[in-house]
Amino acid sequence: MAAADTTFRGDPSTRSGPAPAWVVVVKWAAIALVVAFGTLVSWRLVEDGKALFVVIIAFVVMAVVAVYSTRRAVPLKYLLPGMLLLVAFQVWPIAYTAATAFTNYGDGHLLSKEDATASIIANSVQEVPGSPRYRLSIAVPQGQDPAKGDLTFLLTDPSGKYFEGTPKGLEDLPTDGVEATTTGKITKAPGFTILDAKQVNKRGKELGEFAVPKDNGGIKAVGLSEAFEGRATVTYDKAADKLTDTSTGKTYVPKGAAWVPADGQGEAYPQGWKQNVGWDNFKTLVTNSTLRDGFVKIFVWNVAFALLSVISTFMLGMLLALLFNDDRLRGKGFYRSILILPYAIPGFVTALLWMSMFNQDYGLINNITGLDIDWLGNPWAAKAAILITNLWLGFPYMFLVCTGALQSIPGDVREAARIDGAGPVRTVRSITMPLLLVAVGPLLIASFAFNFNNFTLIFLMTKGGPFTDGDVSIGSTDLLITYAFRIAFSGVNPDYGLASAISIFIFIIVGLMSYVGFRRTKSLEEVN
Amino acid sequence: MHKRAFGAAAVTGVAALLMSACGGGGDAASSSSSTSSASSSTETTTSAPAPSPTGTEAPVRDQAADLVIWTDADRAPILTKYAEEFGKENGVKVAVQISVDLRAQFKDATKVGKGPDVIVGAHDWLGELVQNGAVAPIQLSGDVASKFSANSIAATKFNGQTYGVPYAVENIGLMRNTALAPTAPKTMDELVKMGTEAKKKSGGKVTNVLIQQVGKTGNAYYTYPYLSAFDGGIFATKANGDYDPNKVIVNSAGSIKGAEELAKLGKEKILSTNVGDENAEGLFTSGKAPFFITGPWSVPNAKKAGIKYEITSLPSLAGGGAMKPFLGVQMFYVSAKAKNAVLAQEFVTNYVPRKDVQLALFEQGGRPPALKEAYDEVSAKDKDVKAWYEAGKDGKPMPNIPAMNSVWGPLGQAAADVISGKAPKARFDAAQKEIVANIAKG
Q1: 8 Å CB contact of B35 and A376
Q2: d(CA A286, CA A284)
Q3: Which domains are present in chain B?
Q4: What is the ipTM of this complex?
Q5: Given an 8 Å threshold on Cβ–Cβ distance, is B133 in contact with A471?
Q6: Which of A76, A337, B149, B291 is the most buried if burial means most Cβ atoms within 10 Å?
C-alpha cells in the first residue's frame, strides 16, 4: 500500500512532520503505476470498442488517485481495495445476472438483430448454376500501395481466357506478357502488382465485400486462388423491416426475436436475436407447471440434502474427533492423518470412484454386501448413494474443525465437571458440546451453504438423475444449481435468461437461510 | 454483529450466484459433454472419464499468427505439421491451438470476437453454430465436392448451404472377440445364441453376451440403429433430403418395433443400464464379452489389451432389416468472424481436400477418410477401415439441425427405461411428446 506512512499514524491529530522521502517516492510510483496500467487497459478496451468499461476504469483510477494522493480520507485508504473487489466480483456479477434474467439470451438468441440478419444474408450466397470457376490472383494496379490500392481480380476461366475484374465489371485482359502456372493462376501481368498471401489476407475485410458484378450476381474470391460467381438469395428491406428469399419468393417478418414466414407457413430462420422479454422468465418459472413443480420438488430435496449432509458429516466428524481427542489413545497423529485422506483426494476423483462402486452389477458395494440395489437407477437409492458419498467426502473436514475446537477447550472445565460428579456422557452433552458449537456453529452454516450448491458431486455421480417421471429436465437428485446449469448450458436449448432467473431465486433462498442461520448462532454464543 | 451476519449471508448468497451464473468459464467445459452425451462418443473420446476439471479454459487466440486453428489435443500434433507446411507455402504464420471443449469454447469466444479462424469438429454441431451465427459458408466447387463420399458432403450442408470440408466419416459397428466367437453373426438372434454359448463354455469368465453403452440416462446414439432397422428413426426427411424438425417419428410404428427389441434384450439381460460409458470398454477389453457395439475409437484400447478382434456390420433384427447406424462426419469449419478469412478459406477449400492431408489425419484417428481417393488407398491396406466403412454404408448422417439437441436426452432416457422394463409403446409415446414440446419451446 503506497500510503502506508499516513495510515499507520492513524489519528491525524497525532501526525507529526512530513513522511520520509523514500516513502513519498514509493507512494507516487505506485499511484503512477496504477494510472499507467489503467491507461493501458483502457487503450485495449477502446480498440475493442467497449466505451462503458473505459468510463468505469477511468472512475476507478480517479478514485485511487483521489484517495491515496492526499493525507485525507484515511478510512477509505483501507476500504478502497476491498470495495473495488466487492464491486468487481460480487456486485457486478449480480447486476449482470439480474440484467440477463430479463432477456431471452440463449442459444439461437446470442446475436443482435443486425448481426442475425447479416448472418442470414451471408449464408444465403449460392453459386450461380452453370457458372464457371475461375483461377484467381488478387492484384492492385502497378505503382499503387498493396495495402491500400484498388483491388483487382486477375481471372482465368476454365478455357484459359484471361480477365480483369473490378467493381465496375469484367473486362478482357490482354494476354501479352501474362504469365500463368499450369493450373492457370496468373503470376505476372503487365500493369499490375500481384499481392502475396499475407497482403491479401490483410485486406480480407474488404475482400469480403468485394465482388465483380456479372449478369446474375458477382464474382467473389474463395481463398487465394479461386473465384466463383454467386449471389445472395435473401434480401433485407430495411424500410419495411422484412426479409425476402428471392429463390422461393417467400417473405419473412420479425416475430418473437426471429424471422418467421409472413404467411405463417414453413420454418423461421434459425438465427434469432437477443431482446428484452421483461418478466417473462420469472413468469415462466411461476406459471409453467413442469418448471414450477420441478422447482418445488428439487428445492425440497436440495434443503434435505444440504441439511442431512451437514448433520451426518458433523455427527461422524465430531464423534471421531471426541474419540481421537482422548488422552489415553496412542498414535493419534497417525490415525488423524489417515482420517484426513478422503479430504485430501480431489472430490471429483472420489465422486467418480463411488459412482463405479455403486454400479448395480459390477459395483463393489453390491458385490460385498450381496445386495441387489439399483443404487443409481432408483430415485430413493440414488439419494442415499449421494448422501453416503457426501458423508465420506465431508466428515474429514468436520473432524478437523472439531479436533481444533476441542483442543481449545480448557481441560479444567472438564475436570470441574468430573469433580461435580458428571459422567462422560453428561460431560459431553453439557460441557463439551455447547463450547464446541460456539466455535463450529458458523462453519456448519457455511457447510450448509456449500452443500446447498454442491454441483460437482451431483453432476459427476448422477448428473441429477435418475429421471423417472418421463421428463429429462427434472431429476431425482437434482439440486437447484444442477437444474439451473442444465437449463443454461446443456440440455434442450441453452437458455441463459431463464437460468439467470433461477439463480436469482437461489440467491434469495440461500441468502435468507444463511441470514436466519447466522442469527441463530448468535444465540449459541450467548452461552459464554 | 448484525451487520457482520448479514455480510456473511450476502457473501454466501453471492457465491451461489457466482457459481450458477458465472460458472460458464470453468463449468461450461462439462456442458457439451451432456448436451450431446451421445454424440460426444463420436468424437475421439473413448470410455475414459472426462478430462479433469483443471485446465479446461479456452485457449487464448494467438494474436501474432496469420491463421489460427483450434482443435482437440489428439489432432493437434498432426495438424500442426501440415499447418506449418501451409504456412511455408504461403509465407504466413499458422497457429494450431488446443481447445478441450471446442464446441462451447468456439461459440463463446467467437461471440466476443476472440475466436479462431478455423475449427475442426463434428458435423452435428453445424445447426447450433449456424443458429448462433458462428460459421461461414464454404463455396466448394463441384469438382472438389465430387471427390468426397456423398454422405460426407451431405453432412456438411444445412438448409442447402455448405459450411465446411469433411475429412473423416465414422460410425458404429460390431466388434467381436474372435477367441470367444469365431464367426460373425448375421442376426441379433444368432448373436444372442452365440454369445450365450460362449458364456456357458467359459465357466464364468464371460459375464456378458453383448456390450453396448446404455447407462442410467440412456444413449440415443446407440439406440438409433434399433429404430432404423424397422425404418423408424428420429426425424422424417423433407423432399430435399434434409431432416424435418416438425416431423418427429420417435413413436412411429417402426420406432416402436425397435423399442420392443430393446425391451426384449433388456428382459433377457443382454442389455443393461448398468453398462455405461464408464465401464463398457473395460468389460470388452478384459475379455468378459464376445460382442461389443462400438466405433473406431475403441480399437486402440482393444489392441493394447491384446484382444483378437474383427469388425463387422451391425446384425439385422428379426422382422426388420439391418441395423443402420448414424454417420458422424469430422470436418473443418471457417468462423463467421474469422480475422483471417482469406487464409482460412484457402486452407479449408484448397488444402484440406488434399490426399496427403487426409491420409495424415487418418493416421491419427483411424477413421475412414472422407476423400474417396484417400479412402481407397487406406482401405486396400487396412481391413478395419474397410469394415467400419461397410458397417456404415447404409447409414445416414446424424441430424445436424438444432432440434436434435431436444432429442438426445428424452430418447436416451426412454431407451434406458425400456431396457429396464418399462412398456415400450407407452414410454416412446411419452418421449415423442417430450421431444415435440421441447422443439416447440426452442
Answers
A1: no
A2: 5
A3: 67-171+328-397 (3.40.190.10), 173-324+401-441 (3.40.190.10)
A4: 0.77
A5: no
A6: B291
